[in-house]
Amino acid sequence: MTIEVGYLLPTRERIVVDVHETGEIIELADHADSIGLDAVWIGDSLLAKPRHDPITLMAAIAGRTKNVKMGTAVLLPMLRNPVLLAHQAATLDQISEGRMIMGWGTARDIPPIRAEFEAAGVPFDKRIRRMIDQIHLCRALWTGEPTDWDGLWHVEKGTLAPKPFTPGGPQLWGGGGVPAALVRAGRYFDGWFPSGAGTPAEWGAKWTRIKEHAEEAGRDPSKMTGAVYCTIAVNDDIAAANAELDKYLEGYYMQPASVIREQQYCFGGNREQVVEWLKDFADNGATHICTRFTGSEDLAQMDELKRIREELSS
User: Fold this and answer.
1) Which fold has domain 175-314?
2) What's the pTM?
3) What pLDDT does 296 receive?
């Protein structure tokens, strides 16, 4: 089985240490492209966890690279006007010649994110219905045909150009692991891209349910991608790997690491253990693994990820 691997670019991590320039991040994407990684991923937040805008940064990466895919992990589409977002995505899909993946999420219900929605003028409690409408409206606009839409947004014979490079528009992957999110993934998305929580086996059980929901909706589940977003620390010293993972999680989320480990897919260990843990996801049906590494040795981590992919696919 061939497993694709992606590397989460450290946009948030750079802002945390007061590095706002984009040069290093773009060079990391160049390196991922040069060594043959499958994808680079970029997170999204306006105010809750400040970082670079993913759409703008992906455009810069798309114009410099040739093979690596790029995606959002994950975008909060409901903070954006869908007509504008569809236009940006179609243009970016043309720049990248179809190498774009849009991971979409619904946001955790915590005070900083509620405040972020309020600042953007978007009702937090209506975000799910808003996102589903955005899926339908974006896909209608991506056909390039005149579109009529009468709802939260009003479009009258609106024709979007350019058309996306990818017929029908870029792939949309949905996150979330609660039952309603699994139904949404099966009905509306091209892939499932959760960040946790649970074990690889639990991920696999949910993936099975998503494929059942897809079939119930008259969709072909074989055309969907099962993906995983995880955080890993790799070190020959297992205790050191877990200490580094805990330090990273606590510094990033300002919560005890034990809490975050229960909420997200996280693992610390030597390479053999990390590969075994990731392989368990693959054995349960995952074909794309997005990795967020702890530490700051980004180039070395990318090289390590390439070796991990070789072992996963062997």
Assistant:
1) TIM Barrel (3.20.20)
2) 0.96
3) 83
